[in-house]
Amino acid sequence: MSTHKDFLSDSTQVALLHTSRIRPVFCVIEHAYRNRQIADDACAGIFTSTGLTIDLGTEIDWESPRLPVDPEWAIEWYKFYYGLDLAHAFKSTREEIYLSTWRSLVRSWIKQRRVNSDSSDVVARRITNWIYAWNIFARESYSDAFEDELIASIRSQTKYLYLNLTAERNHRTLELYALLIVALAIPEIDEELGLLDFATHNLFENLLSDVLPDGVHREQSTHYHMTALRSFLGARENARLFGFDFPNGYDERLLKACEFALHVHRPDGLIPALSDSDTGSYFDLLQLAADLFDREDFRYVATQGLQGTAPTTTCSSFSDGGYYIQRSGWSNSENFQAERYLVFDCGPLGDGGHGHYDLLNVEIYANGKPLIVDPGRFTYFAEGDAKLRRAFKGTAAHNTVCVDGLDQTAFYPGKPKQSAAKGKLLSRLTRACFDMLCGEVISNCYDALHTRRIFFVANEYWVIVDNLRSDQKRTFDLRFHLTPEAWNHTAMCVSETNVTVRTPDVALVFDSTFQPRIEPGWVSPKYGVKHLAPVVSVKSENTATDFVSLIYPTKLHETAPSFRVISDAANLRDSGVLEVVTSCGVEYIEWETG
């Protein structure tokens, strides 16, 4: 893990200043790009991006006809992240091939591509990664002639970027961060363009506009939240190292974004892939924030209970972003990953086109494993006739209720063209070993009102009550997406009162008046990669339907829990009483609106 403690020593910095015109900067991603296989592949002209590996040969054609149809592949390739893998391999082995490969790739790009060939965000990533990589290469092998070429191209690309900044949101953030890095690394360009003051001021403005007061990024994507947070934290650490300050208020809003990052991580250290997201761990950002702000709760989570002090809040609310989290606790390192966790989406769609139509969606984790998951994004483009962009973005791809097969918001690949569905939290009640969330969604695509209550009982299991009301007869489809590990490992058990879907790790229990079905679905842990996974579908055709779902983490050999409704089933939206029978005994769950 890379923190400010790994930054170059003062003596090394002084030595570099006498040899290289590019000063060393703090690289917030260096620890994540140390893959020898990626470096060796690059030396052979083989590149992997968005889940696809392409052999382009050692004589690189940057506009090769062999590039995949999905432009995201080339977009990632043009950003030069593999340059950091090459630099690390060179640093570790001193083998000249890694440096000569990177130098050849950079020179061929300069020769073949125009400065304005790419969008501003791609330019920003490329020049940042060139500086990051050269900082490593120059420590070991410095070349005046090559550096002159490098600086000349960075100067041209920086001027283009400066004049073509994205207007708002996460692309603007990373572009401003690139200008900051150029200003710190190459003072002669800063003197020419005045980048440092410009980037510092505008990064602060973008932080305030993009991160809501509760800390959630305005695009409502866990992945893009972390991507933006990395730029904001990297900028803050470089400010500390170079001895300049951001305006008052920067740290306050940045800390809010870090607090959301802390709470949204599952106990296994991964984030749920909400909206356009990949899963992954961002504990490195929490570790950096812990060092910057002396926050021992950040350090505790970043080290999974090995160091620091446990957070005091388990049931956290982020009302501006509309995310609500239930967690059984913050155990020490031995049991940290065994805690229970649920995240509930009850907020806005999000600005831009990265939001999914997933209101009242949940993701559930227990006993060291995800149980019910958000399938992620897979791709931004349709694949053949399958229309997988729509399939992953639509309501049916989430753990909520689909009405008449429609999306909550009319589908569009990017930003919606019609009014988005509205969600809001109606109430939350938290007590010792108990938490209740209640939210609703109103859609312009149909008249049905969907209300969902989530009961987290005894820090052990969940009961979810979905109430659907419409003026017309409709098909209501309650859906739960299980993990790829559950594929071909599901069983169904029927009793007088319940129907239970079992996997090796969880029991999903429904009232016997409904007949669950197991359907094939997909889960995408990262862009361009998808795995088969089962989907539990429970349907009802009526004007009013109440689904009761008991989600109980358990093993196949253990006795399945059961429940029964012991109040007037016709009024479950307003009040209800459930009797839940588990191996630990009998518990009663009761609610009343208002």
Overall description:
Helix 11 (222-242) runs parallel beside helix 13 (283-293) and helix 13 runs antiparallel to helix 14 (296-302). The chain has helices at 10-17, 36-43, 71-78, 82-93, 96-112, 120-140, 144-163, 169-185, 187-193, 195-210, 222-242, 250-264, 283-293, 296-302, 388-393, and strands spanning 46-49, 52-55, 316-318, 323-327, 341-345, 362-366, 369-372, 401-403, 422-431, 434-442, 449-457, 461-481, 491-494, 498-502, 506-511, 517-526, 529-553, 562-565, 575-582, 585-592. Strands 8, 9, 10, 11, 12, 13, 14, 15, 16 and 17 form a 10-stranded antiparallel beta sheet that branches. With 594 residues, it is an alpha+beta fold. The protein has 15 helices and 20 strands.
Portion in strands: 25-35%
What's the rounded overall pLDDT mean?
Answer: 93
Number of strands: 20
Low-confidence segments, given as residue ranges, are 1-6, 8-18
Largest sheet: 10 strands, antiparallel
Structural class: alpha+beta
Brief overview:
With 594 residues, the chain is an alpha+beta fold.
Keywords:
ten-stranded antiparallel beta sheet; alpha+beta; elongated; disordered N terminus; 594 residues
Q: How do the helices and strands line up, and which of them pair or pack?
A:
Elements: H1 10-17, H2 36-43, E1 46-49, E2 52-55, H3 71-78, H4 82-93, H5 96-112, H6 120-140, H7 144-163, H8 169-185, H9 187-193, H10 195-210, H11 222-242, H12 250-264, H13 283-293, H14 296-302, E3 316-318, E4 323-327, E5 341-345, E6 362-366, E7 369-372, H15 388-393, E8 401-403, E9 422-431, E10 434-442, E11 449-457, E12 461-481, E13 491-494, E14 498-502, E15 506-511, E16 517-526, E17 529-553, E18 562-565, E19 575-582, E20 585-592
Antiparallel strand pairs: 1-2, 3-4, 4-5, 5-6, 6-7, 8-12, 9-10, 10-11, 11-12, 12-17, 13-14, 14-15, 15-17, 16-17, 18-19, 19-20
